Amino acid sequence: MDSALISEGAKRCSFPKFTIGIAIVGAVLLWGVYAMFLCWFKGLNQTNMNDYYGFALWIWADLAVIAVGGGAFFTGLLKYIFKIDELKNIINFAVIIGFICYSSALLILAIDIGQPLRGWFIFWHANVHSMLTEVAFCLSAYFAVLTIEFIPNILENRQANKVPFFHHLAHNMHGVMAVFAATGAFLSFFHQGSLGGVAGVMFARPFAVREGLLIWPWTFFLFTWSAAAFGPCFTLLVTKITETVTGKKLVKDNVVHLLAKISGWMIVTYIIAKIIDTIYWATVTAPSLGFSLSHFYTNNSFYGYWILITEIVLCGVVPGAILIMKSTRENPTLRLIAVILGTIGVCLNRWVMVLQIMAVPVMSFDTWALYFPSWQEIATTVLPVAYGIILISITYRYLPVFPQENELNYPVEVEPVTEAE
Amino acid sequence: MFPFSFEWAWDMGHVIFFGGFWYAISILGAGMTFCILKAAWDTMNDSGESGH
Question: Is A414 part of a structural domain of the chain?
Answer without folding.
Answer: no
